[in-house]
Amino acid sequence: MKTLFRTLLYLALIVWLGAEIFFPVVAAVTFETLRPDTHTAGMIVGSLLRILHGMGLVSEMVALALLALGGAWGIYKPRMVLVPMALLVLAAGFTIYSQFSIIPAMERDRINAGGAIDAADAANPSCMDFEKLHRRSENVEGAILLLGLATVVFVAKAETEKA
User: Fold this and answer.
1) What is the pLDDT of residues 92-134, one digit of tens each?
2) How far apart are alpha carbons 59 and 93 in whole angstroms?
3) Where are the domains of the chain?
4) Which of 103, 111, 113, 108 is nearest to 134 (CA)?
5) Distance between CA atoms of residues 24 and 11, nearest Å
6) Is 100 helix (H, G, I), strand (E, B) or coil?
7) What is the pTM of this model?
């Protein structure tokens, strides 16, 4: 039972962090491949980001539930899972913020700028706001990745201090 439990926990963390690590590579390749057509590249990357967030939220919730159960079932010392659980809650909060606040605002700005940000005047307020939100999105995704890496460290620490 413990092996199955740990396998599911590690799988949730692997899926989440693997996607977070691989996403910037996919985004860079997409923009490089479609270089003259940054609008299409942006639309593809935006769609992939929505998928990443869905995968992330499911993985974060699965890992959170498994850590809670691991503490309750005596697989881990209950106090040892508190930090990774808190990190997962923060990561999920950032994921939700990006998915339901930043991305819709960027989409609104894209539409207000005429449909294609790269075709709009850089001084256009919608274009300027889009760029600000884009930087925020990158920072939030970076924070999610760091929270994920820290979660792995604290899960490994919990493994060394079993109940």
Assistant:
1) 999 999 999 999 999 999 999 888 888 888 888 999 999 999 9
2) 13
3) 2-160
4) 103
5) 21
6) helix
7) 0.91
